[in-house]
Amino acid sequence: MYLLFLLAIKDAFKKGIVLEPHGAVGYAAIQKIKKDLGKAVLLETAHPAKFHEELDALGIKYDTPASLEGLDRLNEHYLRINPDFEELKKIIQQNL
Q: Would you tell me how many other CB atoms lie within 10 Å of the CB of residue 6?
């Protein structure tokens, strides 16, 4: 799996797209089945700069926004939800 997302990150970067590892797995899946999909939307879950070690190792150039500086020193917070589109939609609408 590690090699898969590294190859996906490199392939996307050649197309002008900077991905983070989670998005790279989704990107790789879309590339594999895109002929059957037609159009697809890929939603990233994090800013690529959050994964600076992986991107640096691949020689991927990226900008780190000021808002992410020092992020690695903060406590992580996340929300667990059921795999339910309506629940996701409600959470997004409540937090806009």
A: 15
Alpha-carbon gap, residue 40 to 54, rounded angstroms:
25
Nearest C-alpha neighbor of 13 from the set 24, 22, 2: 24
The two structure tokens encoding residue 38: 């037609």
Q: Assess contact for 42 and 26: CB atoms under 8 A.
A: yes
19 close to 12: Cβ distance less than 8 angstroms: yes
Average pLDDT per consecutive 10 residues, the chain (96 residues; last block may be shorter):
82 92 91 84 83 86 84 83 93 88
| Cα 49–Cα 51–Cα 52 angle in degrees, nearest 5 | 65
